[in-house]
Structure formats: structure tokens, C-alpha cells
Amino acid sequence: QVQLVESGGGSVQAGGSLRLSCAAFGYSFSMNCMGWFRRAPGKEREGVATIDSDGSTTYADSVKGRFTVSQDNAKNTLYLQMSSLKPEDTAMYYCVADSRLCRWVWAGLPAYWGQGTQVTVSS
User: Fold this and answer.
1) For a pLDDT cut of 70, what percent of the chain falls above it?
2) Is 57:33 a contact under the CB 8 Å cutoff?
């Protein structure tokens, strides 16, 4: 059973930066895709950024150039560096993992989810 534990959320003013972390426990080595999804109040969940086991990354258009996903395999930890934050980035951010390749994860919903960490961006 994969367990994902996020940290690093908080409140920041527009234009600021935050770094989210996700510690993975369990059978994370079998996960081909890890990444971040988010859900804003009153909106559907949406993909933010993913990274495949070969290191290739994919980003939502809304965060390209501002967010960077990375992972430290030695520490079983996933990161999301967020810069130039906007009020519309306000959401609960979830670390996700799946044994499928990321292109299938974007088409559906990831198999494993963390509890989430809140990010609030004020104008």
C-alpha cells in the first residue's frame, strides 16, 4: 500500500513562492508516475504536474513556466516548486502516484492520493 504525505502548504501573497514536499512510503518504487493534482473551491480536481519514472515531466498549461516538479529517489520524496503564485492557484494540493504511465493518469484519476496540503494565495 502506497502512502503519500504532503507538507509545505501555507498562505502567501501573489507573486510569492512555496515548495511542496511529498514523502512516499510503501511500494512507491513500482509507481511509474508521481505528481500533483489540486482542487480549488467549487471546481473539479485537475492535474498540475507529473513526472514519469524516466524523469519526463508534464505540466498543466496554467502553471507552465511557474511550477517545477522534481523527485529525489534516494529519499522517496517528490517536490513541487511554485513561483509567481496567483490567487487562482489557491487550492488543496494532493500528491498522487500511479503504476501507469503519466499520459494515462492525466486522462483519468490517479490510483493513490495523499491527504492534501492547502495553498492559499492572496492578492
Assistant:
1) 98
2) no
CB 89 within 8 A of CB 12: no
Partners of 77 in beta bridges: 23, 72
Q: Which run of H or of E encompasses 108?
A: none
Q: What is the pairing mode between strands 117-122 and 91-98?
A: antiparallel
DSSP symbol at 85: -
d(CA 40, CA 87): 11
Q: Read off the pLDDT of residues 20-74 as tens digits, 9 standing for 90 and up.
A: 999 999 865 678 999 999 999 999 999 999 999 999 999 999 999 999 999 998 8
